[in-house]
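ok trying this again, last paste got cut off
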Amino acid sequence: MYSCAASRDQARLVFDMARVAVEQSPALSKHLKVYRNAIVREETHGTYKALSAEAGIQHGLSAHGVIFDELHVSNREMWEVMLSSQGARRQPLTVALTTAGYDRKSVCWELWKYAENVRDGAIVDPTFLAAIHAAPKGSDWKSEETWASANPNLGVSVKLDFLRSECARAVEMPAYESAFRTLYLNQWVEVESRWLRMDQWMQGSKSCPVDLRGRECFGGLDLATTFDTTAFVLLFPLEDGTYWVEPHFWIPEENMRQRVLRDKVPYDAWAKQGHLTLTHGNVTDYEKVRLDINALREKYNIRQVAADRWNSTMLTTALQGDGLDLVGFGQGYGSMSAPSHQLEAFVVGGKLLHNSPVLDWQAANVAIQQDHSGNIKPSKAKSTERIDGVVSLVMAIGIHSTATAPPERSWDIIAL
């Protein structure tokens, strides 16, 4: 018998509960021996172990029972291998335990839909027992009645005060809404969730409260692909604990009209108002971008600038040659998640100040991508329109956090 999961720690959760049950039961202890990684019944040569996908796919097994925990984060191959391992058994049993997830191409989604069909009578399968506790479609996810429908043990193993606290967090931080609904309401949601609440974002829309000349700031640079905007965003820490955001955008002049029609936003008006710069030609003129950034270096004390380390172009090389301290910044969860969460906290707390209709538009477009550990990052692929300014802002926050973090404490060892 085996308990399985995507990770070793997850697979051991069920195993460790079984181990404790045996150790605390005199009746079970008479027949079973507990070892660190196995529970064994010697007279029948029966063994119970925990397996994970991290250890590689397990072929050649002959499983009598399989407990698959958190199937929504497990891979299809391990699921199919464990099922096929029961072929020699007369009465094998497989139990799948899971919350809902995001991936509608996963084996978990397929099993979920099959379970619904069996439960509803669309499929007759006497060998399959479906038990689904989930909030009904269209129900109010903030309602305590909805929580009860998805949590039959509410008030016992799941505390009501805890759900109230988690729900309040999801209301204030929309990025957490998907996690709340999958984990506690058992609802399948789209991974692309709209990120920032615009009423919270717009509370920071105001004029700059201080003179910025000569002030220290940190930058994020996101270079345009075919139809994106090139964005350079500066983040100024202010004395009262707030942050002023000064974004700069560039698009090609020749295809500006095409962009107005396609994106349905007034690039032409924004250019006249000074909120973005038009460069000559039908592709962004990076030499113009370079000259503008160097002019900003003369005006402000730009300490560091973060740029996508995989987008190494002649512009970034030239800017480094000009003396700009430009740092490569990864676009994965490891680099982007912490500053993304920080940006979210700044917006909710009213600490982010700005005055740019271009950045406002892009903030309204942002959808996030979220992994199963709660890490987040802005997703250009899943966002409705351009988000380059927000990506640059996240990088600026990230490089500011890195540059201003206190040094690790060192210890002097003194022999007495």
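PB: full thing came through this time. Residues 388-404 form the longest helix (17 residues).
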